[in-house]
UniProtKB/TrEMBL annotation:
Pfam family name, one: Glyco_hydro_9
Signal sequence, start to end: 1-32
UniProt cross-references to InterPro entries, sorted A to Z: 6-hairpin_glycosidase_sf, 6hp_glycosidase-like_sf, Glyco_hydro_9, Glyco_hydro_9_Asp/Glu_AS, Glyco_hydro_9_His_AS
Any GO BP annotation: cellulose catabolic process
Domain annotation Glycoside hydrolase family: ranges: 38-491
Source organism: Senna tora
Keywords: Carbohydrate metabolism, Cellulose degradation, Glycosidase, Hydrolase, Polysaccharide degradation, Signal
Domain of life assignment: Eukaryota
Active site: H418, D469, E478
Keyword Hydrolase: yes
Protein name: Endoglucanase
GO MF term (any one): cellulase activity
EC number: 3.2.1.4
Keyword Hydrolase: yes
């Protein structure tokens, strides 16, 4: 069980000073302009999802350079799997990160939707584009389709989604080939979305919740990691490194929040130790839900409704202390410019997800009039908000390069993102088919991408704040849906409060 980090007395003063310097004296923006236009950034962060759409595009599609794509997905398996999102800069539909994206978009709306103004409508549309697909993927009891497209053939090509001629294999899990991780995350997404639609579309909300219940039962009954069942298809792309246990708790936590049924509360309490609720407290993303579980469940404790979840609040407090700059933790670094940095690719996924948890927890603490003691430092709600805002401001341009890492926001942003549809000429500009290898010259070109994928947030700079702005450097230059999904909530809050 995680406890609050204790500071060595000889270092505490220096560390507290480091916290204050970082949070209270942010970098000046190179442009010298005033504060950020969070409302504009919010609009663009949601617009990005329209550029990631697969399937038949609706009449109100705003990114007009995208066209219909992958209209026969699922046909080889005798099912309709059209729709959903491409997760990043390729043309595969990976169900694991797509479901996490839907969960985080939903959580963004649940906690911060009231701050989004008219943009909440577009955020809700972004959720529904995912959940309509997830309903198709879970339509057959005891089966979840978890991926469409062969990643090896897809990654061997650089072509527009509208031109795809690679294999569109549909991969599934079932009782004989389990995947509690992706099924648990899918249940979480459906349950979280049911809350979003509860008053907006009650019939759809009930359908989502009922499906979430069924998918969770399947995930729990047939336990196993989907990367064992589908290793060739999902590894090393979205291989489950962390195990499936956290997704079972995560799914149960969202089902408890959505349904208020006692069985899910009892499941969480009963399985807390078995499913390792306190593991890796400062990790949160598509593969590791531990910090998210602890923050989500802790709201019940802070509201005075659920003493039986007290250990989750202790874990959440431990997470908060481990993230604070100036408090040494081997898994969390800060760049010289003040950006959260964790080892591995696409660092911005950690920045936005962890910042979302800081902001959500600061709100829960505010409502309960609580703080988090971290040795000799006290993490107040205001401090956590400042730290989350500092990360968002870094993304939007308050950084050593004076560059916005959101495409289309600010005067200077990445021009050569690792993204097939953005980097190849659009169908409108070049109606003729561009074959698998014919796109390579666009990938290797030093020219900016012809299509601006507005709102896309790329993987971001390295630990020294350096950024190459080059397509081959995919870890830095590739956008993903799960970078943007938590950012929607952050920008929603800051657009209303700053």
């Amino acid at each position: 069980m995680a406890r609050n980090a204790q500071l060595p007395l000889s270092l505490s003063a220096l560390r507290i000073l480091a916290v204050l310097l970082l949070l209270l004296h942010p970098l000046r923006r190179v442009s010298g302009a005033g504060g950020h236009d969070y409302r504009d950034a919010l609009r663009k962060s949601i617009l990005f999802f329209e550029g990631q759409r697969s399937g038949k595009l609706p009449p109100d599609q705003r990114l007009r350079w995208r066209r219909d794509s992958a209209l026969r997905d699922g046909a080889t398996a005798g099912v309709d799997l059209t729709g959903g999102y491409y997760d990043a800069g390729d043309n595969i539909k990976f169900g694991f990160p797509m479901a996490f994206t839907a969960t985080m978009l939903s959580w963004s709306i649940i906690d911060f939707g009231r701050s989004m103004g008219p943009e909440v409508r577009n955020a809700v549309k972004a959720v529904r584009w995912a959940t309509d697909y997830l309903l198709k993927a879970t339509a057959i009891p005891g089966v979840v389709f978890v991926q469409v497209g062969d990643p090896l053939s897809d990654h061997n090509c650089w072509e527009r989604p509208e031109d795809m001629d690679t294999l569109r294999t549909a991969y599934k899990i079932d009782g004989a080939h389990p995947g509690s991780d992706v099924a648990g995350e899918t249940a979480a997404a459906l349950a979280a979305a049911s809350i979003v639609f509860r008053s907006r579309d009650p019939a759809y909300s009930r359908m989502l919740l009922n499906r979430a219940v069924r998918v969770f039962q399947f995930a729990d009954r047939y336990r196993g990691a989907y990367s064992n069942s589908l290793h060739r298809a999902v590894c090393p792309f979205y291989c489950d490194v962390n195990g499936y246990q956290d997704e079972l708790l995560w799914g149960a936590a969202w089902l408890h929040k959505a349904s208020r049924r006692r069985q899910y509360r009892e499941y969480i309490v009963r399985n807390e130790v078995v499913l390792r609720a306190g593991d890796t407290i400062n990790e949160f993303g598509w593969d590791n839900k531990h910090a998210g579980i602890n923050v989500l469940v802790s709201k019940e404790v802070l509201m005075g409704r659920a003493e039986y979840f007290e250990s989750f609040k202790q874990n959440a407090d431990g997470f908060i202390c481990s993230i604070l700059p100036g408090i040494s933790h081997p898994q969390v670094q800060y760049s010289p410019g003040g950006l959260i940095f964790k080892a591995g690719g696409s660092n911005m996924q950690h920045v936005t997800s962890l910042s979302f948890l800081l902001l959500a927890y600061s709100n829960y603490l505010s409502h309960a009039n609580k703080v988090v003691p971290c040795g000799e430092t006290t993490a107040t709600p205001a401090l956590l908000k400042r730290l989350a805002k500092r990360q968002v401001d870094y993304i939007l341009g308050d950084n050593p390069l004076g560059m916005s890492y959101m495409v289309g926001y600010g005067a200077r942003y990445p021009q050569r993102i690792h993204h097939r549809a953005s980097s190849l000429p659009s169908v409108g500009a070049h109606p003729a088919h561009i074959g698998c290898k014919a796109g390579s010259r666009y990938f290797l070109s030093p020219n900016p991408n012809p299509n601006v994928l507005v709102g896309a947030v790329v993987g971001g700079p390295n630990v020294t704040d350096a950024f190459p702005d080059s397509r081959p450097y995919f870890q830095e230059s590739e956008p993903t849906t799960y970078i943007n999904a938590p950012l929607v909530g952050l920008l929603g809050f800051f657009s209303a409060h700053y």
